[in-house]
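Thread: quick sanity check before group meeting

JM: Hey all, I'm pulling together slides for Thursday and realized we never actually wrote out the predicted structure for the chain we discussed last week. Dropping the sequence here so it's in one place. If anyone has concerns about the input, flag it before I start.
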Amino acid sequence: DELQSINETDLLKKLHHILEKINEERKKLFVVFDNLQQSYHYGTEKFENSVLNPLSKSKEILVVLSGTRKLYSLNESDELHLEKIDENECQRFLLDILKKKGINFSKKARSRLNEWAGGDISALSIIFERASKLDKKKIREKDVNDAIDQLMMEMNSGYSIIKNLLSPYQWKLLVAIALQDSHYQITSSTFITKYELNAPSSVKTALDA
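JM (edit): ok, ran it. Output follows.
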């Protein structure tokens, strides 16, 4: 909503002022936009002209774009495309962050977390975030189980609302999509056979309903 109400002229003036200061002081700066796909809802052309282009023209600024959709192609930029994040590498990264804060996960706690998250980066991040807020230096299996139970209780009402809005087939399809790796096409014969979804036409009808 904030992006929709942006006054482009005022924004450009503010950016121009900021860029002048940065270039005068010759300080290197990283500007990172995460979940960039969200800008699609607010108008990609406006966002590119008002924000990205002015930033990318500065020699002192490195613009980093992160998201699940490629919407922009800035000049003189290198693109890194990841089909899938390495779950083990991500977990090591998160564990290192907590370790620097003096928080360690027991072997059983890590095993339980892996079993539950199934390599899902978002799920791992949520539990790690909650663990960092506990007044404990050692996170054990029980702590992980408690965090999982609490999370599931919080999410249950939301899932129930969604489930009641969908037909049994739509819910079955949604569960299948959640369980499956992202590289499968949901109308492919492999995906449909694996989750017993009848036919591609049934999937398309469920998605369009």
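AS: nice. The chain is about 55% helix and 5% strand. Confidence is low (pLDDT under 50) at residues 1-5.
JM: adding both to the slides.
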